[in-house]
Amino acid sequence: MYLPTRKVHSNSKTVVGEFSSEKREQVQFESGLEEGFLYILNFDSDVTSFHDQPFQIDYKDKNGVARTYTPDFLVEFKNRNPALFEVKSMEFIKNNHKELRPIMEAGKKFAHKRNWKYNIITDKEINTAYGENVRFLNRYQSYKLELAITNEVLARLSEIGNSTPNHIIRQLKSNQDQWPEYISAIWTLVANKQIACNLFEIIQMETPIWIPNHKNELELKYPYLCP
After folding, report:
1. DSSP the chain
2. How far from chain centre, in Å, is Cα 70?
3. What is the pTM of this model?
4. Of 95, 21, 37, residue with least CA distance to 71
5. Which residues contact 26 (CB under 8 A, 6 or more apart)?
6. What angle do CA 37, 41, 47 make, to 5 degrees?
7. Going residue by residue through the chain (227 aa), what tens digit of pLDDT does each one get?
8. What sign does the dihedral 51-55-58-63 (CA atoms) show?
9. What is the distance, to the nearest Å, from the Cα of residue 183 to the centroid of all Cα atoms in its chain?
10. Contact 31, 86 (CB under 8 A)
């Protein structure tokens, strides 16, 4: 268990808050970019836990002055060694590359000694259709479904083989008052990977959906490089 070594704070230009997940009760973030990354981690079935501000690393800055640096996140996986992540915008990296270089080198050395990976993840990987989709689906991951509705949706989709949320709902229910609970059921099944769709394009009511051959079909996994 890694407790945060510091409390995050806003500089009036960033979004600060806490992210709740079954993988970690409360995780701090201090930018919208970090929050977006947490949604991606939370959706990744190979991630077992993630920890914010996990520890401090000693380093010397570009002028040789001794300083400490705190990585943004430590992520633990089921099937691979842990990894450290530093979350920064491409613009920030471009404008501060000289100051960042000794920090990143210290982070890499720290991770290497422990047989971990060290990663810099940016808006290029986070601010994507996939990132937007998993943020949307997050609200459905713990949604409680009626078993009858779940079985009804899955049975019809299995029978058809390939459909869309809009088509499935119209086939199952003519009463439009019942559509909202069926829409919620479909997105909950997508969020829990019982229904598959292309998460690399913005999902909507006309998005093709199907029963997956593998639970993790089309799921983005570490190192989170979108196709």
Report:
1. ----SS-----SSS--EEEEETTEEEEEESSHHHHHHHHHHHH-TTEEEEEES---EEEE-TTS-EEEE--SEEEEESSS--EEEEE--HHHHHHTHHHHHHHHHHHHHHHHHTT-EEEEE-HHHHSSHHHHHHHHHHTTTTPPPPHHHHHHHHHHHHHHSSB-HHHHHHHH-S-GGGHHHHHHHHHHHHHTTSSEE-TTS---TTS-EE--SSTTTT---TT----
2. 21
3. 0.91
4. 37
5. 18, 19, 20
6. 155
7. 666 666 666 665 677 889 988 887 689 999 999 999 999 999 999 999 999 999 999 999 988 999 999 999 999 999 999 999 999 999 999 999 999 999 999 999 999 999 999 999 999 999 999 999 999 999 999 888 889 999 999 999 999 989 999 999 999 998 899 999 999 999 999 999 999 999 999 999 999 999 998 766 678 888 888 77
8. positive
9. 22
10. no
The two structure tokens encoding residue 25? 């009760």
Both tokens of residue 29?
Answer: 């973030």
Structure tokens at 215: 């639970």
